[in-house]
Amino acid sequence: MEFKTVVFYFLAAILVLAALRVITARNPVHAVLFLVLAFFNAGGIWMLLGAEFLAITLVMVYVGAVMVLFLFVVMMLDIDFARLRDGFWSYFPVGALIGVLLAFEMILVLGSTRFGFEAFPVADPAADFSNTRELGLVLYTEYVYPFELASLVLLVAMIGAVSLTLRKRRASKYVQPSAQVAVHREGRVELVKMAAEKDEPTAAEAAAATDNPASAPGATAKN
Amino acid sequence: MDAILQPVANFFGPIWPLVWSLAKIVVLLIPLMLGVAYMTYAERKIIGFMQVRIGPNRVGPLGLLQPIADALKLLFKEVIMPRGASKGLYVLGPILAIAPSLAAWAVIPFADGVVIANVNAGLLYLLAITSVEVYGIIVAGWASNSKYAFLGAMRASAQMVSYEVSLGFALICVLLISSSLNLSDIVSSQGTGWGASHGVGFLSWNWLPLLPMFLVYLISGIAETNRAPFDVVEGEAEIVAGHMVEYSGMAFAMFFLAEYANMILVSTMTALLFLGGWLSPVGFLPDGFHWLALKTAFFLFVFLWVRATFPRFRYDQIMRLGWKVFIPITLVWVIVVAVWLMSPLSIWK
Lengths: 223, 349
What we know:
The complex is a heterodimer. Chain A is mostly helical.
């Protein structure tokens, strides 16, 4: 067996196991972390196929950003595990039916003669072949309109999410950074000159005062 | 070299590529770990001098054996696990913290051609790996089952996700003008231009045309590594070291190793991307690894300098700086650089 094949089965086995654990793990935080593991192994398999741009983007976008926020939310939620498992068996038939249907469709597509290695021979890339460059060229020339359309859809989704969750809270206290930066001493502290109100010190007290000149009177702070 | 290696390669047979890669990794990691150890020493000494103290001076001459003594002490300490902790994840936390900060070094070139993996998508790989770093902190903070640790983890995830965006945009500017994702190519592209042909190579490095991005990258790098003045993640005065509060012994040391390895990584990256890596600043001196080491050392000094100079940011100010200042600046600058690149005034053609 070739070394690459060994690596593939290794990654694929971990991927399948991790994906199974995502739905069987009791603790949602563990489930999210297993999903992260699954993403990593999927990235590894893509890397094996020579699709390094897609593999790294998968790790960067999903593992580095999306799953972090997922984890963030799952950790903050107060989840009742018993209620989460409720009604598992009543939903099971529908879920199983959909699963079988999906598997059947995949077999239909992937198992056909039009989708095998014979139909898509693997091109032997040149030595300085850059996956990123090729993808970029195709994406910004041939598929530029679909690409821009997809970005527009994402933008709309982004604005929609913000506008749905944004609500003004009256109680929140607001600071104006520019006002904070623009503060000067004159606006906060006033120095007031005051005449000394003490009696004439005796000789001993005068000597002590010159030893310890701190706590000079006359400055009062006002906010 | 080949004559020496060939018999060894024959001895190992088919597993030779694996052995050879492992050997390269060891050759990289040992100096790196030593660098981390002496970075802690340098930090204590430099901040000591800045605060008119002496710093460590008891163990060995000038206190030079202090990091070794610290490491030994931490090795022999017991690793305590809190009763309510999530056992597997509690152990996994420090491992997840240190693994990405070491894995990132695979694509860092140290001189022309001296790199473990000279991949075309090197910069992307670095971005992906550094974005995974946050998991160690989150997992550790959650698994500890402690309020302080959890607060630290929450702050860490918010802060690191925010600053990654501006970090990424700064990198996009760099790869726009060098039109490559390969770190070696990015460095060599800085060796061409007006300055390089007139003997003042430092003028054609990326820091000058990308000056705002250079500063944003440096500051975001400090925030990304959770160093002072952005160290609310640890916040030893408020949440007593955050995600690390329940850890002891070597598990605790792993977080420290990761933090310092990340500092060295960010400094090296800044040197490679903006200060021409191993290129010599002037024409009459030869290029070489020593230039990269010098530039990295300078940025590491900046890390310590900043820590000794500035008070800790308030948490909402950190978020404001990330989202409302850096991201708009970088967004605009990406467009400015792209337009500049395509205009007749472009200096990179």
